[in-house]
Amino acid sequence: MTLDKDKVLFKAKEILNEEAQAVINTAMDLGDDFFHSVEIITNCKGKVVITGIGKSGLIGRKIAATMSSLGIPAVYMSPAEGLHGDLGIVQSEDVVLSISKSGESQEISDILPALKKIGATMIAMTTNEKSTMGLQADIVLKFNVSREACHMNLAPTTSTTVCLALGDALALVASEQKGFQPNDFALYHPGGSLGKRLTLNVEDLLSNDCYTFVENDASFQDVVIELTNKPLGGTVVLNKDRELIGIITDGNLRRSIEKYGEKSFKLKAEEIMTKDPIVIQKGLNAGQAILLMENERKISVIPVMHNEEYIGILRIHDILKLA
């Protein structure tokens, strides 16, 4: 089969634009129902149980996973399995978020009486507030989708995209309202480079040869020797009281030579160094170090301090290699 490239790309763009517009329309329509849904989830004393069948069930699984990673205890329950014992997951202090475009999914309708008896608060995500599901819910989180992006207007496409985006909005806003912070995120993501960047402190990343320094009256040659013996990209400058007063990087040497030529070889460390360098305190994490190094002066090395005491130099390479 030979495909027409222009037609294929045109159709793909048409679908993406249609789904994007549906998400924008949903954002424009947000009101009290969304606010009260966030309020209920934020103040939930139990967990959020998300249910849906078919494609809505797949979206429900993703929303539950997102909420869980953002500090909102959440699980997915298949309504079909709920009819055969899984309703035991639901407790009276829980919130049930049910997803159905029509609000008439038979499997969800069949578990509604039991959910009412259990006493869980119910939020219905649907296009039809007058549906069976909508009428049984405490809050109807309504969204409007006039048609699916599917060329037959049959396969759940635009509606599932909107539900997913709406679920993300619920999770993210509720998480923020609960005061969820990067350190909390790290607690639930201990594995991989992301977790390490958020959980490892800067002192954990210091290399064996990280303690490098020269005294303020060290010669140009002494600085070069120290940078050569400990190729970290920089060394700090300490005064006689072992107080950090500056930093010298390869760039400092290069700029000195460009500015002074052969005279630079007679300079002392305190004449070459960058005064008042950016430092980071022991106990802060690798992610905070990246923010300092990339957002302040685009530096590649940073001294690590324990209060006023210098304990070593950290390279951005030591952090990035976690990935």
From TrEMBL:
Keywords: CBS domain, Repeat. One of its GO terms (molecular function) is carbohydrate derivative binding. Residues 37-180 form the SIS domain. SUPFAM superfamilies: SIS domain. PROSITE patterns: CBS (PS51371), SIS (PS51464). InterPro entries: CBS_dom (IPR000644), CBS_dom_sf (IPR046342), GutQ/KpsF_isomerases (IPR050986), KdsD/KpsF-type (IPR004800), SIS_dom (IPR001347), SIS_dom_sf (IPR046348), SIS_Kpsf (IPR035474). One of its GO terms (biological process) is carbohydrate metabolic process. It comes from the Bacteria. Residues 206-264, 273-323 form the CBS domain. The record marks K55, E107, E148, H189 as: Catalytically relevant. Pfam families: CBS, SIS. NCBIfam families: kpsF. Belongs to the SIS family. GutQ/KpsF subfamily. This is Arabinose 5-phosphate isomerase. It comes from Metabacillus indicus.
